[in-house]
Amino acid sequence: MICTGCGMSKATTGEGLCDGCVIAAAASAPPPPAVSAHPARLRSPVGLSYAVLALLGLVVAADLFAMFAAVSMHGAMGDAQQTQGSVDRANDLSFMAANLQRWALLATATLFIIWFHRVRANADVFAPDGHTRGRGWAIGAWFIPIANLWIPRGIAVGIWRASAPEGPHLALSKVSHAVVNAWWTIWVVAILTGRLATTRYNKAVEPEQVRDAAELLIAANLADIAAAALAMLFVRTLTSMQRIKAQRG
Question: Among 26, 45, 121, 207, which is least packed by CB within 10 angstroms?
Fold first, then answer.
């Protein structure tokens, strides 16, 4: 029997191919698909979300205390019978508030990024091809100066889309990002306002300058409270979306 592949040599296999054609076919076969060294797998973000929500509550408490300190400083500088003692007390309150906010922010940011990476890894299971950046960006993007004002938002949108419930009446391209956009916008406003207020407060010399800086600090803290509240909504909603989607298989 002649080989059906080359039509020249004698067939030696049950498929009608000679030894040479068998070797050639094996050499031209496509390589097996690459397997990731760290494949994505589902891990519950629920426990982490509870801890993040608790720390966001601490951020709100720190902001409220900072507002009280700013109001105290504003009143001390506007008092016609201003005394050194009242100014010193207001300064002490401001110092305590700044330290409380610093430590609350550090703890919250650390745990939030861990949670954010967890939900990003889960999103790889839900929609492996629905992301423009790898899982590592869910951590690294927060530490890039300037770019951290928009890159994490894009990652958050990708996670939100991947975690959205799929159905005949809900296309992923039409998923609402209102919660993500509201949280991110207010958060950026709070950051920029807070930096401006802190700079003005540190440079203020005259009582009127201190009062103006204190007013800006109050506005910055209000924005930060709003951002923390929206962050809570973002964390709770996204965690719930992933939990429901995982339960549906």
Answer: 26
CB 91 within 8 A of CB 210: no
User: How distant is the alpha carbon of residue 125 from its chain centre?
Assistant: 18
Cβ–Cβ under 8 Å, residues 221 and 61: no
Those residues whose C-beta lies under 8 Å from the C-beta of residue 117, and which sit 6 or more positions away, are: 135, 138, 139
Q: How far apart are the first and last CA of the chain?
A: 53
* pLDDT over 60 at 36, yes or no: no
pLDDT at residue 3 in the model: 64
- Phi and psi torsions of 95, nearest 5°: -65, -45
The predicted model scores a pTM of 0.80
Beta bridge partners of 170: 167
d(CA 34, CA 92): 60
